[in-house]
């Protein structure tokens, strides 16, 4: 199993717009990616900060996720609301 923790800072005042697109992506991942076991958006305690927590069966499932049309399109759309690139932590299950 591989887990990803992606921390995202959002531009002030763009939280609702970001959440709308991020939740659409969350729903599409759940409906279309059998290799992804968990993909959820969380609000962090810091203002305008979100965390995606993701869990995949293996690296192939991550690669497939990154190639999907919904990830590419909605990821690009989310980018307009982000205040810089996400901080991404990839964890291998022990």
Automatic annotation (TrEMBL):
Keywords: Monooxygenase, Oxidoreductase
Segments forming domain ABM: 2-91
PANTHER family per UniProt: ABM DOMAIN-CONTAINING PROTEIN, QUINOL MONOOXYGENASE YGIN-RELATED
Official protein name in the record: Antibiotic biosynthesis monooxygenase
Claim: Oxidoreductase is one of the keywords in the record: yes
Entry's Gene Ontology molecular function annotations: monooxygenase activity
SUPFAM superfamilies: Dimeric alpha+beta barrel
Keyword Nucleotide-binding: no
Name of one Pfam family that matches: ABM
Stretch forming the signal peptide: none
